[in-house]
Amino acid sequence: MHEVAALAGVSIKTVSNVINDYSHIRPETRQRVLDAIAKLGYSPNLSARGLRSGKTGVISLIIPDLRNPYFAELADAVMRAAEKQKLSVIIEQSGAERDRELSLLSGARNRMVDGILYSALVLGEEDAHLLEAIEIPMVLLGERIFHGPTDHVTMRNTEGARAATEHLIAAGRTRIVALGAHRGEVIGSAGLRLEGYRQALEAAGIDYNDALVCEVGGWFRSGGAEGVRALLASGEPFDGIVAFNDSMALGAMRVLQEAGLRIPDDVAIIGFDDIDETRYTLPTLSTINPGRDEIAEIAVQYLIERIAQPESGMPPREYLSRFELVERESTVVAG
Amino acid sequence: MHEVAALAGVSIKTVSNVINDYSHIRPETRQRVLDAIAKLGYSPNLSARGLRSGKTGVISLIIPDLRNPYFAELADAVMRAAEKQKLSVIIEQSGAERDRELSLLSGARNRMVDGILYSALVLGEEDAHLLEAIEIPMVLLGERIFHGPTDHVTMRNTEGARAATEHLIAAGRTRIVALGAHRGEVIGSAGLRLEGYRQALEAAGIDYNDALVCEVGGWFRSGGAEGVRALLASGEPFDGIVAFNDSMALGAMRVLQEAGLRIPDDVAIIGFDDIDETRYTLPTLSTINPGRDEIAEIAVQYLIERIAQPESGMPPREYLSRFELVERESTVVAG
DNA sequence: GTGAAAGCGCTAACAT
DNA sequence: ATGTTAGCGCTTTCAC
Hints:
Chain A has 335 residues and is of the alpha/beta class. Chain A has helices at residues 2-8, 12-19, 27-40, 46-53, 69-84, 98-106, 128-132, 157-170, 188-204, 221-234, 246-258, 292-308, and strands at 58-63, 88-93, 115-119, 138-141, 151-155, 176-181, 213-215, 240-243, 268-270, 287-289, 318-321, 324-326. Chain A is elongated.
């Protein structure tokens, strides 16, 4: 920077002004500085800037696991949104371990980032108070913690599940499985989506049948597969499945096909998340698009606002994205 | 830090020593400092440390697109390897655009990272000289650029493809499709894998049939699907497919099944990459596991070594990981 | 419109 | 074994 100033024949302050797009610089001077920068291949030292300004231009995104397509796509959306705002993103994987989620939140690595986007999988409502201790700006993604002390961006889970269920009902299905429930959970994606499922049944005058509510080990393909296997073994008849995420739906599809059932003729199935893969399976999977891009953009915007005004006293905000029902082959009987 | 020093009744230097695990500190003093740190909830400012030491403890990983499962899994492996070494990872997506790959490599964001792991998709051999201009340590992943000025970590592409092809031959297939070739490409994954395919055919005394070498638009599901559709339309008979990555294999499987062909009975198929999904499709997909964890660990280790000794004059290294053939349902006829 | 100087929080010499 | 001091590269008052 000194060299640039020398070459351009100005002071180091002027160089700083040019870089930061300050006003009141003669165009001619500015050009001279720009030329010098180009000639010397200079680029500012971000650590120094960070030290001085207290900001690093980096945010961290805490997610359970990148190998889960849902989170990979979420990370992609967040990175695109962050880039528009000239922010870099450090991704930290919690592995869905409680200790790791906690240590990442309070960890020393955070000293290097301006804010955190936190997609909780393990911490729940009862841990909301722990978030109070986090001193750097944070925005929460997903459903695990409501009414926390931070901004929260998520989708309309209940309405989405209701729309998915109504879609199957409209297709003439009456014995509809809810795949991925967690008994006793009221908040959290599982609880909210189950509530939407119930609402749709009730509105259509279909009795709720507990035998069709299928719990799983985890929201993975394997969980969906096991769930449907158990269901088939139970002998309880069904003609539709609302899976609470796409991975489970895909696992379920595989088991149904192995069992010789046709999709959607024998069983119609709809998922949740609209991960890329659902466009290429056989059959393609109908699903609820949660508005991922919108979630990412709003979350980044909220975080930037909190970073800009850490002590604004603005109460925690809650943003619910628009979802969209995506109709594909798994729910539409050809002809 | 000053406060910590005051509370512990020592100088700020001693605090620094404790934090950095220096020797020659009386255990009692160290403990006093540690207590003070805990009480004040102090944690060091990484920006300041970075400014002073010239290192940030952050590396960047440049990949085309996280939504591609192969790269999501690579990113996961890299992050796990980096974490073991106490490094954070900033992920940058190039979107497979040439301009973006170049600007990311030389971009200002790099001032904040100690080194780059670069998985090229667009830049090729002819751009190797551009890498010379990058002044920060870099390790290359993947096949696009060989003989560049940097360390390079990748898999044994030719041997892997040969093993895959031999696996189909051993299963009695003789009319084997190579799916995902790029005509005229010699280096790059496509060229290397095609070479392995040819070697296997030759070793088995099977004539190379150009009509079975199938080019595709891109290494995505859609590319694999289109390729197989064209092949079916051509009327050229085939009983096996070596797909140069798993995504194409999955797209191909879908088209085969739509066409009423049984896998593996009518057509056996094997992919490349061992992405998670291949364990859950119907049928499950045989594939070549490229040794992703090994690649990630070696790449991070190489990068750390280069960061430690930027001007060591050590010549560029090349590391080839061990691969493994994973046998699943798509190549094994039951019974 | 531009320059001079102070200092962000830390580490590395050097001194004690 | 611990304290003192200079300075990393930048931004930011405050003069001019």
